[in-house]
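3.2 Worked example (two chains)
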Amino acid sequence: MRSEGKFYDDKNFPRGFNRSGVFTISETSVLENYGRSMRALFDGTTQPIDDSEVQFLAEVQGQQEAVSEFGKCWIKYLNHTSHKTRSYTLCVSQRAHTTGSYGEDDDSDSGTDNDLDY
């Protein structure tokens, strides 16, 4: 695989690949050193010139199982950049209470004092 300079993705990994917590040290090295070549091959802007690049293309296009370090790393990169991540929280929203939800014991007044005995 040829190296065409350092590869950075400031949009998806603004603090760098190594600080993202997604990639290992060796995967970070592969992405930074060969990422430009891998992206160009994946996009089709350059053609493969050796067997490792042909194998890489076959792996990322799903024609064969990813066994090379380049293929595994690029597929992992694509999975983290192309799929939206959903995060779930355990807080209750501040919307109006509806019947049958958490607001069954609703103490809100309806504007009358009919419940009070004086």
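3.2.1 Second chain
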Amino acid sequence: MTLRLYDTATAAVRDFEPVHPGKVGIYHCGLTVQGAPHVGHIYKEVVFDVLRRWLERSGYDVTVIANVTDIEDKILAKSADRGVPWWAHAYEFERELHWAYDVLGCRPPTYEPRATGHIPEMIELIEQLIADGHAYVAPDGSGDVYFDVKSWPTYGALSHQKIDDMEAAEDADPRGKRDPRDFALWKGWTEATPRTASWPAPWGRGRPGWHIECSAMAGKYLGEEFDIHGGGLDLRFPHHENELAQSTAVGQKFARFWMHNALVTTAGEKMSKSMGNSAVVRNVVERVRPIELRYYLVQSHYRSVVEFSFEALDEAAKSFQRIDGFITRAVEVTGGVEPADELPAEFETAMDDDLGTPAAIAVLHNTVRDGNKLVADGDSVLLRETLASVRGMLGVLGLDPLAEPWVSRTGGSDELTEVVDGLVKALLEQRQSARERKDFAAADAVRDRLKALGVVVEDTPQGPRWSLASTDEGS
């Protein structure tokens, strides 16, 4: 089956054909590093990480560009409130973003350009837009430059709107505009902001508008036409609409596909810092393992809204623990196998159908169920094949606990892990001796003591096996 993806611009699922055979270029909008990322932010990173893994599994050479917006009005306002330089504020939360990438097993982009590192490219693009009659310098002497939306007849094509039906944003600054719907390409410097947050330009010192940065950076690193432009659905308008207008107005073909993941909501409303309902990634992974949070996000289709709750998160964690438990038992029996090169046809069909992770995970769970039946019979070729298949599918989803980065995260030093394992095994030997002499009260007392410490004991044909309880089981 050919990979098919939903394209926002055409509002249809289409066959994916790359600009250059065998190669895929992806640009997805990174964060404005104004604060610590919450689950809603990181959802996009997980979605496009899975897309990248599936494309590479399908044989493509993939280049991923994800920008960092490190100069923007919110950054200036929040840094001023904290009394720190804007650039220090931005860098602090850029590092927090990288931590969140890593903790959820997202591979870093091929390149991650910063907005402040590409001011010359933005100025060049703005100059071309002015020369072609699609942008103008505000006549009020402010140094602002605006894109003239009425100069571009197809403005609104991505969001399927007509210009005459659009209204200016309530918080839009109207100064110097010909039309209230025109948007800023360049913001002239004023004494209300630090001079360090401005750069010289032909029309006066200032800083770039939000939208121009992505047009400049996507074109620089992926060329005038590339395969996929992505981001959260909330970016479709005005951000991506404005990008498309700027880039096509200077003659670029820009993106062949526009992919937008749905939002993460809480109580039916978009997760955001301003609403005070955000679940910061650093806090959430104190409740469940990072791999379980990733599973929670992957199990939904990327175009379906994720209603975040800790109850749903805990249920997802238990679901993943069943997969994890099978892998542990199967490795104990077989000694371990490498991930399979060939995956179940139903899994591949699901992933080729607009990245259908819910159907793909259903195949995964069915395979695990069949594998659990095989474990009791001991080592076999079929069990090894099943384990390899499960690992292969998990690898596509970034969830294989025996692969990096998860395999390196033991929760402590190797020495400490070895000591704890030895102590637990010693207690289990005492429990087994009590059972053999039919002192079941003593045996149960050992098991209860371990359970109180958060250690779950499972009796298997190969002997007792222990694991750490999930957070809610251990509380």
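3.3 Remarks
The first helix runs from residue 39 to 57.
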